[in-house]
């Protein structure tokens, strides 16, 4: 086998593996290097997303949601279950089975598309050469016309809470608990902290989430964030904002967590502590000093809007570059770069990257918030519709939350969609598609939606933008 490739991808997560598949589809001779070894000692592709991120966290969220429904929700429907048990090791095992299926799937896709998988570490040298070291320490040099760096990110660690075995853990460790902690602390009320806190809270843990910022979910639309805080608190999550963790002390398997808030020094004692304070780009050992690739001040590989680095023919995508750390953003960048290498004119629309928090209800949004528009001095109008008025949500007894749609005051073009509610991710995507096609709120209002369906809330929110909602009183009338 020749060691010359059209494309060498370093990193096999949703950015890297998707880029590799698309490049191979376009007829480019492609290799993808990944160094990840899973907990069974097996080299697997799929990156953070498949192994310790999106997929395993959703597997646990889904199991814990079913458990919660069976223990607390079914009775409302008249369904009696004498005793509901949760077998935590089985829950973890099922999660691992899902992960295995998907990582094997990536291996299969590489095979069917003709991507050469290389298990080991990649290092970018000068002159578009990649040094590949396999897991036995054998090294060889790969020449590539084009190189795509997709090495992703790793959890941030903070000095007051160093990781300790299975007691103080990061998000990866929190996917492996073999029993339900009686008291669980979480540092950081971001996406990961809220999702993992929800998993264990639904199974019975007393969960305290400590968040340094005063505002809860500061990047989320204020109305949606307020509703989220209300609903999640009602579910039993003890969310303490303005609480900065200053230290931890482990004694007899319990962790004392000290933090400061507006009233001074405080402490809680928990059995397990999850540190979920964000992620940082992963570039350790990746670049030789003369590679020519530069970083920004926060350690992300510097790229332009087309993901090109400072070195012609070298690109970087996904969590290792600027922008939201999301699997779909990484994948879209992967496709764009592969297509541009093949001479096509691809582009990512960075204005329309959807975000989702997979709590229940889900929180999903895309486009501008009211605060952003106010700060930019732009005139807008907003319509919202509560799920408590949705026939389908009532039928399902799942009525928390609302849909909010924001449109330009003059042109009526949809500028943002913010949802907390059942299936918010899928509902928000309907509006995102409309936004991609430059839809107005009126266009959405003129579209027919099936009845009874949760998406009728999207329809009504769009109608409410111009005061035409049928199933609620309108703030503005026309
Ligand atoms: P990664 O997935 O991190 O993959 C990078 C790969 O490169 C890794 O396998 C790594 O081992 C390998 N690598 C690194 N350096 C080298 C090297 N020098 N040589 C060879 N290989 C190397 N995002 C969502 O969109 N939705 C979600 O629901 C979601 N949930 C999440 C839940 C959790 C708990 C976590 C931790 C993350 C979640 N994310 C979610 C974020 C998502 O996982 C990341 O945004 C995504 O995986 C980034 O993809 P990537 O390809 O850039 O990098
Ligand atoms: P995210 O970046 O979405 O994963 O969220 C991480 C969250 O952790 C942010 O909201 C931070 O404000 C929060 N955070 C970071 N450091 C601390 C700390 N020492 N104590 C409490 N919260 C923190």
UniProtKB/TrEMBL annotation:
NAD(+) binds at residues 188-195, 211, 278. It is an enzyme of class 1 (oxidoreductase). GO terms for cellular component: cytoplasm. Residues 353-462 form the Pyridine nucleotide-disulphide oxidoreductase dimerisation domain. GO terms for molecular function: dihydrolipoyl dehydrogenase (NADH) activity; flavin adenine dinucleotide binding. Its cofactor is FAD. Pfam families: Pyr_redox_2, Pyr_redox_dim. Belongs to the class-I pyridine nucleotide-disulfide oxidoreductase family. The active site is a redox-active disulfide bond. This is Dihydrolipoyl dehydrogenase. It comes from Litoribrevibacter albus.
